[in-house]
Design goal:
alpha+beta; Alpha-Beta Plaits; seven-stranded mixed beta sheet; 18 helices; about 50% helix; about 15% strand
Length: about 575
């Protein structure tokens, strides 16, 4: 699974279209990233860019954009309403998929080291990339803004983490940059059946982390209660990592609770929605739907779908498309306008123009592509597909069992099995394309030039690397297909007895995947020079194949007895 991170750099230029476009073009031309949004602000004199990709590509694109901003923006002439202290004022990295915050913070520090060392720009690492607690806060790092930067960076306690600590002409032009890692921020509005901003604000104060100021007597007009330091005493709201306010949207003729969810790992969208529903109802107000502003990670939508299905005591091991549809309908995301997942989910934005993928073809399309005169897709991809079909049958039996009449108290047990099956068929579907890509890499390696001795060595190395990969992909298919048979075993034993034949067919498909992938492991073994590695892989493959045979026989025996 690919690791994905988002980068949201803020550059101190929001009025000059030529400068804004030049920075955008640097990002567009960078390999492996997709520019999702460019949002300039004239009053703030600041532009926010959003792009996504695998970490190494994102860091490279960010470095190039920061370098370009340093060439185009002179902080000695900058004025704007937003706090700022550099041409690239802030550059956060945000984990999106299959990557931890710790890993994301490491990438942020690598970027900071390059910017400081190669570009000579002072860098402060903040949030999760900070080297000290005091520097976690962006406001602390940027205190005094550009005008106070010289004295600040030359003081011992605020020496930059990377780059120069002394003022020079270069630094005077670029200022400093804050580079960090933070959680994904979701801008999210909940629609109410009222036009009253006052009542919307009451609900907002109920839920937001900052809550409301405590007052004597009347909660609106009463005298403010203060602590011994003279600071207002606050009644905290019910949701952590949430900022909220009520407002009226003239375009829609309704009031909304406008929220920033600053850490959706603590308060995800579906939890915020349900809490607003509860607090609004206490005040005689009804939530009618909600609105997502900008983009959202796929997992946030999938978890919302699972959350609402669990409330219905239904299996969550259904397709991503179904989960997303449940989330859209449950949250009312389509009340004010169509919610198109391909335009609102980050991962889908990245794949919309990725070209033809085998796993996205129709059944007929894949069959005809396989039957064509090209060598790929071939047996390896078909084996992976067979395994995916087997796992999907096991998943189907689990889903059918989860709502079998009389088995209502077992829905969660079967939902867990369906989730396992879904994991296996998704992983095997990914291997359908991966196997063909591995074959193509071998062919590309054989096509490299071999005129000089250096070219011959490079070609040989490429062939060996590609051949090893071409063995490891079907080995992975074998392992996944074999492991998926645990679902078929369980469903044959405890699942809906009317579907035991489906579990058995799933086992047959899984065994076929194992056997087919094994042949691909063997046929590529002859091209690998490292015979110790070949022996190791073949031994592992043989062990998997033997286990799959035992599991298939066990499942077929159970099915025959029940049928």
């Amino acid at each position: 699974m690919k690791q994905l991170i988002e980068c949201v750099p803020n550059f101190s230029e929001g009025r000059n279209p030529a400068v804004i476009e030049q920075i955008a073009e640097v990002i567009r031309q960078s390999e492996g990233v997709k520019l999702l949004n460019v949002d300039p602000g004239k009053a703030t004199n600041r532009t926010v860019y959003t792009f996504v990709g695998e970490p190494a590509f994102v860091v490279e694109a960010a470095f190039r954009a920061i370098r370009k901003a340093g060439e185009l923006i002179d902080m000695r002439h900058h004025q704007g309403e937003h706090p700022r202290f550099g041409a690239t004022d802030v550059c956060p990295l945000v984990p999106i998929a299959n990557i931890s915050m710790e890993e994301t913070a490491d990438w942020a520090r690598k970027l900071a080291a390059r910017v400081g060392g190669e570009l000579g720009i002072p860098v402060y690492c903040y949030e999760f990339a900070a080297f000290s607690e005091e520097r976690r806060s962006l406001a602390n790092c940027r205190s005094g803004e550009y005008e106070g930067l010289r004295n600040r960076m030359e003081s011992p306690e605020w020496k930059p983490d990377f780059g120069p600590a002394l003022w020079n002409d270069r630094v005077a032009g670029t200022g400093a940059t804050a580079i960090g890692a933070r959680n994904f921020l979701v801008a999210y509005n909940v629609n109410l059946n009222t036009t009253s901003v006052r009542r919307a604000n009451s609900v907002a104060f109920d839920v937001r982390e900052a809550g409301r100021v405590l007052r004597e007597g009347d909660p609106i007009t009463g005298k403010m209660v203060k602590d011994e330091n003279g600071e207002p005493v606050r009644i905290p709201g019910s949701l952590q990592k949430v900022r909220a306010i009520g407002w009226f949207i003239e375009e829609y003729g309704i009031a909304q609770i406008s929220m920033n969810l600053t850490d959706i790992s603590i308060t995800p969208v579906h939890v915020a929605f349900d809490e607003v529903c509860a607090k609004a109802q206490e005040r005689g107000i009804r939530v009618t739907g909600s609105e997502l502003v900008g983009l959202i990670p796929l997992e946030a939508m999938l978890e919302a779908g699972r959350y609402f299905l669990r409330k219905q005591k239904r299996s969550t091991g259904i397709s991503d498309a179904e989960l997303i549809n449940i989330a859209i309908k449950s949250l009312g995301l389509d009340e004010l306008g169509p919610f198109i997942p391909e335009k609102r989910i980050i991962e889908y934005m990245l794949t919309e123009d990725s070209g033809k993928r085998l796993e996205q073809m129709t059944v007929r399309g894949f069959t005809e592509e396989t039957a064509s005169e090209s060598a790929a897709p071939g047996g390896g991809s078909v084996a992976a597909l067979a395994g995916a079909l087997g796992a999907s049958l096991g998943t189907m039996v689990a889903n059918l069992s989860s709502h079998k009449r009389g088995w209502d108290d077992r829905w969660e047990e079967f939902s867990d099995w369906a989730e396992k099956g879904k994991f296996y068929y998704n992983a095997l579907l990914s291997c359908v394309d991966e196997d063909t890509q591995a074959f193509n890499q071998v062919m590309e390696a054989f096509g490299l030039p071999k005129s000089t001795e250096a070219e011959k060595q490079k070609r040989k190395s490429a062939i060996q690397t590609a051949t090893l990969h071409a063995m490891l992909v079907p080995l992975k298919v074998m392992q996944l297909a074999c492991d998926s048979m645990e679902v078929m075993v369980a469903m044959a034993q405890i699942g809906n007895p009317n579907s035991v034949s489906d579990a058995a067919v799933g086992a047959i498909c899984a065994r076929a995947a194992v056997r087919g992938a094994w042949l691909n492991v063997k046929i590529n073994a002859g091209g690998l020079d490292d015979k110790d590695k070949v022996e190791e892989i073949l031994a592992e493959a043989a062990e998997i194949a033997a286990k799959a045979q035992i599991l298939e026989e066990e499942i077929l025996t159970i099915a025959d007895e029940k049928i």
